[in-house]
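Students often ask why we bother predicting the structure of a whole assembly rather than each chain alone. The short answer is interfaces. A chain on its own may look different once its partners are present, and contacts between molecules only exist in the joint model. In this exercise we take two input lines together and write out one structure for the complete complex. Read the inputs first and try to guess which parts will touch.
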Amino acid sequence: MVPLSWYLILAAALFAVGIFGVLARRNAIAILMGIELMLNAVNLNLLAFWRYLWSDNLTGVVFVIMVLAVAAAEVAVGLALIISIYRRRSTVVAEEIDLLKW
Amino acid sequence: MTLAQLIFLAAAAVTLVAAIMVVTSPRLIHAGLWLILSLAGIAVLFILLDNGFLAVVQVAIYIDAIAILIIIAVMLTRAVMSDADRQINRMGLAAAFASLILLAGLLAMVLQVPAASPAPLVEAEVNLDALGRALVDVDGFILPFEVASVMLVAALVGAILVAMAPARGD
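Now the answer. The structure tokens for the assembled complex follow.
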């Protein structure tokens, strides 16, 4: 059987890759992709802990389902915002969207 | 090394390489396709964790809905940012450094988790019947379930409103 720590190490690496994407990419859609990677890393962690430590109750699985629902809502709203910004200001580059920046 | 470990290593390598390609690929469409591969790798890991149901959900929601939505958004907004433009901002090195520090911190924490052997499941798979009942049980998860459904409706209606074409002269 696969040791629990392997899953945790993979999830940590995936989270770090995702946060690099969020911090470094210029395109707002690429930033959303980084967020999806981070959410997936969290899901992997939740499910690994559920399987190895608490497989007798369903909290871990329900938590993953909630994360999926929130991710779907997040990506829908995020992409709608990006498309709206694209229509009004013709840009998807995060650093050019600075109307509220002082 | 057992078969499960070999499958884990293969899926983990695919997931991680695809994830790195997602954040470094200069062409955004390719990044979206790599994202699909990465999510599929996660689905394989869900099956390894004896949860075929969530693997199917992962494919149906993440790959079918979210990744396709992202790719469509990439295609809709292609005109303003060509693939030849710089894709990494000027803080790229600092971002890499910060994520490496985060990785080191996470690993230091993760390696303190005591080794655990998986408890044998009562059934071979997650008990779908019990999961369905728990989601609508007053003693279970009915509140988060209902809140999540209301939130999804609100988010989707809000997304339609936000993405609606601006009125003329706006």
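Check your guess against this: Residues 63 and 69 of chain B are 9 Å apart (CA to CA).
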